[in-house]
Amino acid sequence: MENNGIKDIIRGVDFHFNKALGQNFITDANLLDAIVADSGINCDDTVVEIGTGAGTLTRAIAKVAKKVYSFEVDRNLQPVLALSLQGVDNAEVIFRDVLKMKDDELKSVVGDSFKVVANLPYYITTPLAMRFIESSLDVKSVTIMVQKEVALRFVAKPNTADYSAITLAIEMAGDAKITRNVSRNMFFPAPNVDSAVVRIDIDRTKYDIADHALFRRTVKAAFAMRRKTLVNNLMVGFSLSRADAENVLARADLAVGCRGEELSTEQFVALYKVLAEVTVN
Ligand code: SAM
What is the 8-class DSSP label of residue 261? Predict the structure, then answer.
């Protein structure tokens, strides 16, 4: 089945797009192959795809991967997939919501080690990325289509408006890069926003963090009020006196007047380590 026949299949089985599930499909064969190339998948890889849709990306992944487990929540797509994935014997569609599966359960279905590829509704891209980035599973990489503005936050640098808690969460777990921008016109039907593909190569050993909850709390506090200084944000976020907050900054080798958005990842780690010593939970 050629991908340009997918629109005929969709019409032929009288499939109705579910807008609430973000059903905007990619049909362009060149783009599908390019996304697979971006993800760095090869014939040794097991791939977990989230959001099968009409199976166009599933098919492109299956051409290069050892095995694809593709998760979809909309069973109405079954007749479409029966046709679009005909003859593809290394792809398995599973009608379940991966966000509701625990690591052990997922592991029993797909195995321990895999790469993730996802083109999902935009409202779940961040929780989905975090679900794999912060899991105990051996996830090699996450290649995900996101709204362009979200992609910019994923890869932002300090001292920019896009630099935020999600940037730090991703930076802690791996290396992210935007591999391509994708115009809204490449989807069927076209959504209201442009997109970008982000690939995150997972490396959870980059930084020495024993207490991830405290690290997240540190970042959250630092970004809570972007116009306020870090001292003010730490006073609120950790119930510290001004003198104690200033002392924390001095011990972390940070300037008293600095703001959270100026800190590099290394400086956030230094700040977290001092807070780990001084905070009584
Ligand atoms: N991957 C296909 C493509 O590139 O053309 C489909 C993309 S479409 C943007 C997203 C798909 O994700 C839809 O088919 C939708 O039903 C499905 N979906 C929505 N929420 C989901 C979830 N929690 N788990 C798995 N699939 C989901």
Answer: G
